[in-house]
Amino acid sequence: MQEVVGVRFKKAGKIYYFSPDNIELEKGQWAIVETSRGIEYGEIVVGPKLVPEEDIVSPLKKVIRRATEEDAQKVRENKAKEKEAFDICVEKIREHNLPMKLVDVEYTFDNSKAIFYFTADGRVDFRELVKDLASIFRTRIELRQIGVRDEAKMIGGLGPCGRPLCCKSFLGEFEPVSIKMAKEQNLSLNPTKISGICGRLMCCLKYEQGYYEEIRKRMPRVNSEVITPQGPGTVISTNALTGIVKTKIVQSDGTPAVLDFALDEIKQMEGANHEDNDEDLMDLDDELAPLLDE
User: Fold this and answer.
1) Which of 141, 98, 103 is nearest to 119 (CA)?
2) Alpha-carbon distance 161 to 42, whole Å?
3) Kind and range of the H or E element at 106?
4) pLDDT for 142-184, tens place per residue?
5) What does the alpha-carbon distance between residue 271 and residue 223 come to, in Å, rounded to a whole number?
6) What residues are paired with 220 via a beta bridge?
7) Which of 5, 75, 117, 141 could form a disulfide with 104 if both were Cys (CB 3.0 to 4.6 A apart)?
8) 35: burial class by Cβ within 10 Å (0-12, 13-18, 19+)?
9) Do β-strands 38-51 and 101-107 pair in parallel, antiparallel, or remain unpaired?
10) Does the pTM of the predicted model rise above 0.70?
11) Neighbours of 120 (CB within 10 A)
12) Angle 116-120-121 from CA coordinates, rounded to 5°
């Protein structure tokens, strides 16, 4: 076991483990740490704890020290410099007539590097742009191309639900989202209704998927035969959220009826378990391919 603290450098950013190196640290404090990008300023969001060695990415870097007010002031100065660098870079992109869109600029804490994040439809030859920026800012320059989901995470905004974007608010990392999730949750497959402002499938499709996968294993298939409290019947439809199975039965007087039963009230006949029909999804994947993860 190894003692670590979890540090986050951006709101809703990924959490990285560092060794506290015998420094008394608490959740909510700010610290100066050494990263692969250089010296960085981050917030301790996970207090000291012991984790298995296999959960640590080696080599485990150390916390250098607790942050001071002077460090916080330096971060604020860097933020001001980033805004200035953004405007200059936009102008230089225009001068070089490059097919790219600048999204964000970030300085490392020690000013050893300036990172320019951009989006583009394809590869961009930005060598001359890098030379111009290096001559202006007198520091190492890195241009990093990102996808549309990362762009939404950096810029932020309001989702179709009217709330701030999950990726900007609390999602540390993106998880794969598929069209199959939307289909299993009985959502509309209209691209405008299941895509976020980034143009990709909404991240929230993943939130309830575990429940749907579990309940679908227990739900009988439509048109399958089941045993109900009132005798044998045929499943007409199922509702995963309510756990209700709508079943057609023949009553004791010989007349047919459609009744609702709770999932726990019915017994499935052998071979009646639900099975996914992947063939139905093949055409959907082709039709809605632009919504899939990059």
Assistant:
1) 103
2) 31
3) strand 101-107
4) 999 999 999 999 999 999 889 999 999 998 889 899 999 998 8
5) 12
6) 273
7) 117
8) middle
9) unpaired
10) yes
11) 13
12) 165
